[in-house]
Amino acid sequence: MKTAMGSPLTTILLVVGTASFLHAAPKQIPPYVKQCQIGDPKIVECIIGALHHLRPYLAKGIPEIEMPSVEPFRMDELSLSLTTGPNGYKVTLRDLDIYGASNFSVADLKLSEGTKPFEAHIHIPELKINARYTSSGVLIILPASGQGNFHSTLSDILATVRGTISSKHRDGLDFLHVDTLNIDLNIKTVRMLVKKVFNNNRILTEATNLFLRENGHEVLKAMMPQLRQKLSEVFKQIANQLLTHVPTEMFLLPEKA
Question: Using CA atoms, how far apart are residues 220 and 202, in angstroms rounded to an integer?
Fold first, then answer.
């Protein structure tokens, strides 16, 4: 779903929400903003188009609002316990660089109404993950403590994003703020492998990669609680960075008289 971000999931937050008090729209519209109009019977389609319009800007970054590129976005660390017992196999992934988040499409979108959250379903064809890998314990029957590189490809991803937004008044303009954000991920295909581990011990490396090939979805399941939490935190931060610089009036025009 960049620092991250960004990302497809953050873009949803740019245009979702309701505005009660509108002022005159700012004169200069930045190129990354596609405007929509309150009262438009096709406003949902317009908002989805505005989200898709943002993709190349998220990929490159938006320096004027201090928005970094989401290609890649970085997560700090994930820690996993993959087998139990006193010599259980534990893995730590650090400095995760995640590529592909800007290549998304919004499948459907439900706008927030009152206190009800917004909800969006977003499809991402593929995410590639590179990270530093550290392991300890016993894998199957082999001691498997070591360090190296971790690579993963996650394909055919459906992200469900739910959250709440409030409106804040500043300098005569209204700005949206993401108060809560939750992300669920459904991932169809998982491929994982490690390289340059265990001092290039071929047997340990092949055993580890065999384990990852045969148990990729179980490894992902162990990652998922931390992954969801960290993605939610990162995307919320990036969304609010964007919304702090883009007043509601800039992208949501008042209803025609």
Answer: 24
